[in-house]
Amino acid sequence: MKTKLVLFSICIAILSMGATAKIKDGKAMTGNSLTEFGKYTIVNSSAPMVYENEVLDTYELTYENTNAPVRIGVLCEDKKNCKTFIVRTDEFEIQYACRNNVFGVKKMEPRFQELPNEEMELKLDKVAYYAQRVICQNKKSEDDLLGLIACYFPDLVKDEYQANF
Question: Which of 33, 93, 95, 98 could be bridged to 88 by S-S, CB 3.0 to 4.6 A?
Fold first, then answer.
């Protein structure tokens, strides 16, 4: 557990030094997840997520050591002063939320859910999940939050299911 905390601290330090590019500029954002998934790349997705007839800002996250891309949809809920990041693969889904400058993971709300809850519970690493409930407590840009998701997401999937990615 201490090793993971050290690795995540290093990842956050790397993120604060800056990724190679900002996604909003139409370029890719790259970094190292410091996990077995390896280096990551985040780009704007050509197939956006849609929620309640609203097209969400959608990103595609790929890792050098996995085959399946991860899609991230960003839902801005102004009335709650928060952003919700819907993180989804064909095999796994979870959400990250930023509320009142606290950013962390939470289980997928039923309104966003596409995969069976029982399947997600089976694949979810509960220790990593509880460790990620609060990732940071200060305001970050959307690009910074996407980078944090890229670094933290791989640990949410139990080791025995990571081969499916």
Answer: 93
Flag whether pLDDT at 78 surpasses 60. Answer: yes
Angle at which helices 2-17 and 142-152 pack, to 10 degrees? 150
Among residues 70, 15, 60, the alpha carbon closest in space to that of 37 is found at: 70
**DSSP reduced 3-state for 156:** helix
Spatial separation of the C-alpha atoms in residues 129 and 18, rounded to whole Å = 26
- The token duo for 148 is 């944090």
Phi, then psi, of 40 in degrees rounded to 5? -125, 160
- pLDDT at position 23 is 63
Handedness of CA 34, 35, 39, 44 (dihedral sign): negative
Provide the number of structural domains found in the chain: 1
Residue 40, C-beta contacts closer than 8 angstroms, at least 6 positions apart? 30, 31, 32, 33, 61, 62, 63, 64, 150, 151
